[in-house]
Amino acid sequence: MKAIVVNETGGPEVMTLTDVERPALGDGEVLVRVAAAGVNFIDTYHRTGLYPNPLPFTPGLEGAGEVVAAGAATHLSVGDRVAWTGATGSYAEFVALKADQAVAIPDGVDAAIAAAAMLQGMTAHYLVNDTYPLRSGDRCLVHAGAGGVGLLLIQMAKAIGAEVFTTVSTAEKAELAGKTGADHVIRYSEGDFGDEVERIAGPRALQVVYDGVGRATFGRGLELLAPRGTMVLFGQASGVVPPFDLGRLAANGSLYVTRPTLFTYIATRQDLERRAGALLGAVERGELDVRIGRTWPLAQAADAHIALQGRATTGKVLLIP
């Protein structure tokens, strides 16, 4: 089969399309023909070595497809349509994964949409339901509102009844975030996003900031939180947040800061089924719109990473084997 292989860490150019053997199956595993693989910022962290993987490796944690072989002691069968996240090796024509990592795709959901929804959709779901459970009337700030997680966060926050502020970089992205339901869309390229939040809502008016950007936004975001407000740092697209004096949290009103990751929130099979079921069920019912912004063939994985890191994409980025 063909797969993207990383032999050394570095820039997008280290990803090469290579002929490799199909993976052998162990007990409790399935082999899936990949219909679509999701491209996420965590893949860039693996590629650069920020999050180390043993070399060589095939990147990609997320996808959807059809089971073509099943090992012993598995509940899945050949022909089942499944989606997954957390299974390294998804940038490939076939991937082997533990059956317990896969969830069934509802009949009314396309495989590409399922692939696009898993990591970013479940991330948005745990952020608004568990990390900081939003309530009707809360004010929240969602950074990168036209990205895959951002667009889903906006929809989920509005469904709860929150007032949503969001930041974007371009007029196109501003229009998209606004159409998705954001109450206040701020072009951070035109000025200080915090100044605009304060102009609209006043000082320290936010209950929570959902920050997947990191270094460029973290400090100013803390200054916008109401007393006992929560900073949810779930990504670092602009770089790692440097160490800071925890005394700032006390001085600014007994603030909370947390650095969650999806895989803690789907660590058990029960949690995975519950969260994925809620997410894909909402997609099937038409309650949640999953936007696929761009697809690339598998051979152009490097181009997909360049576009993602250059903030040249909206919605979800997929690779199609």
The CATH superfamily title of the largest domain: Medium-chain alcohol dehydrogenases, catalytic domain
Rg over alpha carbons: 20 Å
Largest sheet: 7 strands, mixed
The helix-strand sequence is: EEEHEEEEHEHEHEHEHEHEHHEHE
CATH second-level architecture of the largest domain: Alpha-Beta Complex
The tally of beta strands, per DSSP, is 15
Count of spatially separate domains? 2
Globular, elongated, flat, extended or rod-shaped: what is the shape?
globular
Helix % is: 25-40%
Please tag this protein with its features:
321 residues, alpha/beta, Quinone Oxidoreductase, Chain A, domain 1, Rossmann fold, 2 domains, seven-stranded mixed beta sheet, six-stranded parallel beta sheet, 10 helices, 31% helix, globular
Concise structural overview:
The chain is α/β, with parallel strands linked by helices and 321 residues long. The protein folds into 2 domains: 2-118 and 263-320, Medium-chain alcohol dehydrogenases, catalytic domain (Quinone Oxidoreductase, Chain A, domain 1), CATH 3.90.180.10; 135-259, Rossmann fold (3-Layer(aba) Sandwich). It has helices spanning 41-48, 111-131, 148-160, 171-180, 193-201, 218-222, 247-251, 262-265, 269-284, 301-309; strands at residues 2-6, 15-19, 29-39, 62-70, 81-85, 94-98, 102-104, 139-142, 163-168, 184-187, 206-211, 225-233, 256-258, 292-297, 316-320.
